[in-house]
């Protein structure tokens, strides 16, 4: 599966960091809280509106034999998609194309990019294990990560 997703629209970046001091939260590097100001319209409701108007955010053309329910993505394939214009991420054994979500991520694009092309389960869990990523990224779901034991 080599289809890339260069045609997924991404807004230009305008993310400014407004870090708060002394917060108890954390980011993937353990350097404290990282609150970012997203562009107007790029909050949760903006994402909900955007996804409801999009049928397929996987970047993969629908064709026979290409079904997220049965697709198996190898680590090698996953690792090829590690750029802001082609960004896949695996969480708890599921692989998502988060290219379109980068501008909407409340923790900022740079934080999400730390997991680009990787199994980012532990990064995700460390920061916000409660976030309902499966629902948010429903239309970005590509397939399952090869060799990932869902029961573990
Ligand atoms: C490599 C993976 C990821 C990293 C390192 C990361 C990192 C972060 C960070 C640092 C914050 C700010 C936390 C704070 O200081 O308040 C944040 C917030 C958030 N992220 Fe992520 N994130 C990742 C993946 C994701 C994914 C896949 C989703 C959902 C599809 C997501 C959704 C959110 C949401 C909803 C918030 C706001 C949480 C809140 O306000 O309580 N993140 N993220």
Automatic annotation (TrEMBL):
PANTHER family: CYTOCHROME B5 REDUCTASE 4, CYTOCHROME B5 REDUCTASE 4 FAMILY MEMBER
Originating organism: Dermatophagoides farinae (American house dust mite)
Gene (UniProt): CYB5R4
Protein family (similarity comment): Belongs to the cytochrome b5 family.
A biological process term (GO) from this entry: superoxide metabolic process
Name of this chain's protein: Cytochrome b5 reductase 4
Highest taxon listed in the record's lineage: Eukaryota
Lineage: Eukaryota, Metazoa, Ecdysozoa, Arthropoda, Chelicerata
SMART domains xref list: Cyt-b5
Keywords (A to Z) from UniProt: Heme, Iron, Metal-binding
Domain Cytochrome b5 heme-binding, residue spans: 70-146
């Amino acid at each position: 599966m080599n289809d890339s997703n260069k045609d997924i629209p991404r807004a230009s970046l305008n993310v400014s960091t407004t870090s708060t001091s002394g917060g108890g939260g954390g980011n993937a590097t353990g350097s404290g809280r990282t609150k970012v100001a997203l562009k107007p319209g790029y909050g949760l409701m903006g994402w909900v509106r955007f996804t409801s108007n999009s049928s397929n955010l996987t970047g993969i053309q629908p064709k026979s034999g290409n079904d997220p329910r049965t697709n198996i993505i190898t680590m090698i394939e996953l690792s090829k998609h590690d750029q802001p214009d082609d960004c896949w991420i695996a969480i708890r054994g599921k692989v998502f194309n988060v290219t379109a979500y980068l501008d909407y991520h409340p923790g900022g694009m740079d934080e999400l990019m730390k997991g680009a092309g990787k199994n980012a389960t532990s990064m995700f869990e460390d920061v916000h294990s409660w976030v309902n990523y499966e629902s948010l990224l429903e239309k970005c779901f590509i397939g399952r990560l090869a060799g990932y034991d869902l029961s573990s």
